[in-house]
Amino acid sequence: MATAETHYTLPLPRFDQPVKLLIVVAPYYRDIADNLIAGARATAEKAGATVDLIEVPGALEVPTAIGIAARMADYDGYVALGCVIRGETTHYDTVCNDSSRGITLLGLQGACIGNGILTVENRAQAEVRADPAGQDKGGGAAAAALHLIALSRTWATAKKGIGFRA
Question: Cross-referenced Pfam families, in alphabetical order (predicted)?
Answer without folding.
Answer: DMRL_synthase
